[in-house]
Amino acid sequence: MENIKTNISGQTGFVRQSNFELLRILCMLMLTAGHLIYYFGSAVETTGFEANIGHLIKSFTIVSVNCFILISGYFGIRSRTSKVLKLCFMVWFYSIAGFVIGLFAGTAVISKAYIIDDLRYIFPITVRTWWFITMYLALTLLSPWLNKFTEFLSQKSFTMLLIALFAMFCLLPTVCKLLSARSMTDDNGYGIVNFIFLYFVGRYIRKYDVFHSGKLRYLLLYCASSAVLFFADMILSKVYGAGKVYFLSYDTVFCFVGSVMLFLFFKNIRFTSKAVNYIGKNVLSVYLIYMHPALTGLIFYKIFDIYRFRGALFVAECFVVPVIIFVFCRLIELLRSAVFGKFEKIMSEEAEATVSNLLKRF
Questions:
Q1: What mean pLDDT, rounded, does the chain reach?
Q2: Is there a domain that residue 8 lies in?
Q3: Is the residue at 199 inside a domain?
């Protein structure tokens, strides 16, 4: 994702707002915890305490992806060729490196029978090796037009647009889940439509500088929305059948409200920390490493053996393991940046200059 930089009142120049960097770090930890719970449930048949506590934690962590897009919308994606290529270089590096590690670990193979699966490591973006990366780069490519579109909208028109988008792609999916029916997009918020909607919400908050209530109020509303999501899911599981989840998706009212409230809570906390900014840099690399198709099982099942814990130890695992994964993956990214950073910068800048010269001819 793009670097978060903005001019903080009372200071000269541009500095990174550590409150948003901290939010990104928190969201990555929440995302990792959610994935851990998912793979825990995939490995063993969870009922009772582990199932309920896992569902409760996921009800609070489901907002992580939406918050990432809200941040991007708030600051606006500037789709410079060099930045896009740097992200692509990082994605391709981890795709190939993870595959090579998987070959040695026995979690990946090279054979004619698996040739199609192997191709996803060479073309990770186009074949959605990581769905978020594909959708985010699609949003990045669309961002110049999205930014211009929002700049020319009046506040009234922008407000009406968001209401319409909310009704079609947030409220309607929630009602459809309540009725166990299919929605208009039927993608649980994993598609580009939800990303564009959240991006517009972020742009709106930034453009009109709205929502300045007390920070504690936003935090309480986030907690309340997450709690309602949990209990609503529990009720529906009784109505339609246990073992299913209904509102744990990115396109429900509960997730949307929770995402916006958590975002607004951090928006209204202003501070600067070099340590936080340093840790938050290239935080997306954490996701690329532990969610690599050839590494996920290796990390969750063989290294951490996540299904061995029950009861209170399972709760502790949900909070401790994501932190360990985060630290380990960030250290890997620091090493990668130190070795290949200059090369990536030179190549991306050369490519940007080439693209710029080609566009001038047209």
A1: 88
A2: no
A3: yes
